[in-house]
Write a sequence for this structure.
């Protein structure tokens, strides 16, 4: 399905679905519950997701793979409507009461059983072959620790105007250019919405739960640490996500700058500390 085909599911609830769609999603989670030894774990933190959650789940149900996998939703003080959707469809949900995206992702990581962990967002629509494309490279290259991609954006209710399509083309060119540059520039432009990580590599590291994390912080800080452990690989694949929140005028999208760091440390100092810490260990 194209992302625009998900329009009927924007703002949907299990009760608003027709019988075929409802039965498809409940059967999907019943099948997932029967998987005892998943190779891949999909981790989806939930906070305020009621408008896009059913569509997101539908995109997961459309995944095409023979790789056994699990889907773990992490309730991070989510709204009642989102939790009700997950409960009615029979999804696996674990709870993390400590508020913050890094706490939620860490909880999901600890719960995960798969060799490969994919971090996802509940406002995103994923390519049907997402698991194969993101996970299989790890079994080809034993030194690979992180696969990542560049997401595209959709407008309200999953639509793509000509303006948005043009914006997505420019975004792809811009991010590919940034990802080809130096270490700090590359790290800033890796996003958790489409990341796959070798579980054995990330477990000793974990997420920086002491950060007052915002979007663009948890993924970048994790990538900094993983960079000293193994290799990264860019994967071209379609992932559509909601537009980011509005930014301050003339300000870049926030990435752990001084406003979001403890003790007023500069970003460069934090890089050095993290890299030194890995070398010592």
């Amino acid at each position: 399905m194209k992302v625009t085909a998900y329009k009927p599911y924007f703002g949907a609830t299990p009760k608003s679905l027709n019988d075929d769609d409802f039965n498809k999603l409940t059967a999907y989670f019943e099948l997932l519950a029967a998987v005892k030894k998943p190779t891949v774990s999909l981790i989806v933190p939930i906070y305020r997701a009621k408008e896009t959650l059913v569509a997101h789940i539908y995109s997961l149900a459309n995944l095409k793979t023979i790789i056994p996998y699990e889907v773990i939703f992490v309730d991070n003080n989510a709204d009642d409507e989102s939790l009700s959707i997950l409960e009615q469809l029979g999804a696996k949900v674990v709870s993390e009461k400590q508020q913050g995206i890094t706490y939620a992702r860490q909880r999901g990581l600890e719960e995960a059983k798969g060799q490969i962990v994919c971090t996802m967002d509940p406002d995103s629509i994923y390519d049907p072959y997402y698991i194969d494309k993101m996970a299989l490279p790890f079994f080809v290259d034993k030194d690979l620790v992180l696969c990542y991609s560049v997401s595209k954006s959709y407008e309200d209710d999953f639509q793509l105007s000509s303006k948005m399509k043009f914006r997505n083309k420019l975004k792809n060119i811009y991010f590919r250019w940034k990802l080809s540059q130096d270490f700090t520039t590359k790290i800033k432009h890796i996003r958790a919405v489409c990341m796959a990580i070798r579980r054995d590599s990330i477990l000793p590291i974990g997420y920086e739960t002491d950060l007052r994390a915002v979007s663009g912080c948890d993924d970048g800080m994790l990538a900094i640490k993983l960079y000293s452990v193994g290799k990264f690989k860019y994967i071209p694949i379609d992932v559509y996500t909601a537009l980011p929140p509005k930014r301050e005028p003339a300000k870049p999208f926030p990435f752990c700058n001084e406003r979001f760091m403890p003790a007023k440390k500069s970003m460069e100092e934090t890089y050095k500390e993290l890299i030194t810490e890995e070398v010592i260990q």
